[in-house]
Specification:
seven-stranded mixed β-sheet; Rossmann fold; nine-stranded mixed β-sheet; 18 strands; binds S-adenosylmethionine; alpha/beta
Length: about 425
């Protein structure tokens, strides 16, 4: 797959040359200076001036650009970011290192002693390769893109992992098609994270991913010790028989979805909810079906998106003695809050009324509500716009949930 120009407009060939320059001793010194200028908050023009004066114009631009990306990567990659080489593109595509580590550990544990080498089929800047090497694997890092290969090589070297990683050119489609005896490219395990963007846009159709969907299915069929990263919106119908699908959320947002090879899969679906760095896992051996529906009671529960996407809302409903407010809406209701549950956020229901802006406004005024947070599900309203229109002079605050209850547009005024 051709790699698009990065956001700064520099094309891959230019970036390859820049990367080579920065990997020299002079390049390292230039990067160090650029990082200190970034850390001091020096702006781009002054920064480039200072760099040109200190390291020359050939190194100044590349050092500034890569240091800028290191600063951007720091919240995600932590201290590793200060040594890594990234581009706008690879940073955008990179998974979270802590989740890559979790994935690598599960893959290695499932593979047991037979798995010591893992193929990373599309390594980009090497997030998965690094996690696998740190988990003890020898890694064959494959990519069609020369820049990706150079970045991975530079990163494993910078992080002291080069003796466990072999970076090679290859096409994952061909390698998977040639996989035999549970191995791909002579590795007994694989990670595949297809490119799911092109031209800055998400590719919703899995057949347009690179490698495309048939290669995903082929890999899951041929190499049982496998982890494939897929789009969180993947249709359940696509998940092959015997393959576990997992959705992972961090602080209430889905960050990744995974398909596990048949030697790793232990359940039908898994929702992993990461809160305060602790991963809570909800699993079902088979489709648990839909939760029953019932009238709105004293508490409304908003399930975490990983629970919803993995199709496990009914497990949480059973646990809480809760029912759905509508068969098509993933809000649960029960008589009590779900104290300390990682699966839902609970709201006390103070009022339930048919959705009507005028009446809702009047009710909020009467309750002395000033600040309003709007949540919606199954409604076309714009939450920010509605919150602005409902805002009042009062001191109190409220959460207004606009949804369907038993098929009817309804507003629930909830306490926070
Ligand atoms: C989403 S990125 C991988 C990101 C990586 N796992 C990470 O977390 O940093 C996908 C990578 O697959 C590579 N790729 C796409 N099609 C490929 C193919 N047919 N064979 C090998 N690599 C491919 C792309 O060049 C890109 O580097």
């Amino acid at each position: 797959m051709a790699v698009p120009a990065d956001a700064s407009g520099t094309h891959p060939e230019g970036l390859l040359a820049q990367l080579a320059l920065l990997r020299t001793a002079e390049g390292a010194a230039a990067l160090e200076l650029a990082a200190s200028l970034h850390a001091a908050g020096v702006d781009v023009l002054a920064g480039l001036d200072r760099l040109r004066a200190a390291v020359g114009s050939e190194l100044a631009g590349p050092a500034w650009g890569f240091a800028r990306l290191r600063a951007r990567a720091r919240p995600v990659f932590g201290p590793d970011a200060d040594r890594m080489f990234l581009t706008d593109d690879t940073l955008e595509q990179a998974g979270r290192p802590e989740l890559a580590a979790r994935r690598a550990a599960r893959l290695m544990a499932a593979g047991g002693e037979e798995v010591d080498s893992v193929a990373d089929l599309g390594c980009a800047a090497g997030t998965d390769t690094i996690a696998l090497a740190r988990a003890g694997a020898s890694v064959l890092a494959v990519d069609v893109d020369p820049l990706a290969r150079e970045l991975t090589a530079a990163n494993v070297e910078a992080l002291g992992l080069a003796d466990r990683v072999w970076v090679v050119a290859g096409d994952a489609v061909e390698l998977v098609a040639a996989a035999r005896g549970g191995e791909v490219a002579n590795c007994a395990a694989a990670v595949l994270d297809p490119a799911r963007r092109a031209g800055g846009r998400r590719l919703l159709d899995p057949d347009r991913w690179s490698p495309p969907w048939p290669t995903v299915v082929d890999l899951l069929d041929r190499v049982p010790v496998t982890a494939v990263k897929v789009a969180p919106g993947l249709d359940h119908d696509r998940v092959p028989e015997g393959v576990e699908a997992e959705w992972v959320s961090v602080r209430g947002s889905i960050v990744e979805a995974l398909l596990w090879g048949r030697a790793v899969s232990t359940v039908w679906r898994r929702a992993t909810v990461v809160r305060d760095s602790v991963a809570h896992e909800l699993t079902a051996a088979a489709d648990p079906g839909q939760a029953p529906t019932g009238p709105v009671r004293g508490w409304l529960h908003e399930p975490d998106p990983a629970v919803i996407r993995s199709g496990l809302v009914s497990l949480v409903a059973a646990d809480l003695g809760a029912t759905l407010v509508d068969p098509t809406i993933a809000y649960l209701t029960s008589d009590a809050p779900a104290a300390d549950s990682p699966w839902v956020t609970s709201y006390r229901v103070d009022e339930v009324l048919p959705f009507n802006l005028k009446k809702l406004k009047a009710l909020l005024r009467a309750r002395g509500v000033g600040r309003v947070v709007v949540k919606k599900r199954g409604s076309a309203i714009e939450p920010e716009e509605l919150a602005r229109r409902l805002r009042g002079p009062g001191e109190a605050s409220a959460v207004v949930v606009v949804t369907r209850v038993a098929g009817k547009p309804t507003a629930l005024v909830c306490g926070t």
